[in-house]
TrEMBL record:
PROSITE patterns: HTH_ASNC_2. It comes from Actibacterium atlanticum. It comes from the Bacteria. The keyword DNA-binding applies. GO terms for cellular component: cytosol. This is AsnC family transcriptional regulator. Keywords: DNA-binding, Transcription, Transcription regulation.
Length: 153
């Protein structure tokens, strides 16, 4: 169920998504309010789970993570034990930035970030060693055209 947010809450969220390190004074000025009400609204949004946490965005290339693969997985297994093992395997692999269960011909899609193709192959070999997978297709992203963590508010 969607949270009930007013115009000021949404403006605060836009500011925080843009730069969560901004001071309360700056955020208050940007949204047309004062510091204490802004702080109270942020606290309430944290308590209700609208704000899940804060993090730092790191440039992957600065860390040598230059290869992004989208991995399409088809499985012939759909029982609860297999799903649990698959989820545990994915959660244990830091290379997996995102994992989605899909409707349609493909069962899962993963976003995997690694230094190079050799590192992807090591990831792939480890994955198929741990869980039974019917078919895997890896697509190398040649260029990131758009990436954002900001939700449309």
């Amino acid at each position: 169920m969607a949270a009930k947010l007013d115009k000021i809450d949404r403006k605060i969220l836009e500011q925080l998504q843009r730069d969560a390190s901004q001071s309360l004074d700056v955020i208050a000025r940007e949204v047309g309010s004062s510091k204490t009400p802004v702080w109270n609204r942020i606290r309430k949004m944290r308590e209700t789970g609208v704000i899940k946490g804060e993090t730092v965005l790191v440039d992957p290339e600065a860390l040598g993570l230059e290869a992004c693969f989208f991995v399409l997985i088809r499985t012939s297994e759909h029982d609860a034990d297999w799903q649990l093992k698959f989820l545990e395997t994915l959660r244990a692999r830091p290379e997996v930035l995102e994992a989605h269960r899909l409707a349609g011909d493909i069962d899962y899609i993963l976003k995997v970030l690694v230094p190079n193709a050799r590192a992807y192959d090591q990831f792939y070999q480890a994955l198929i060693e741990e869980v039974k997978i019917h078919n895997v297709t890896a697509l190398l992203s040649m260029e990131e055209i758009k990436a954002t963590t900001q939700l449309p508010i």
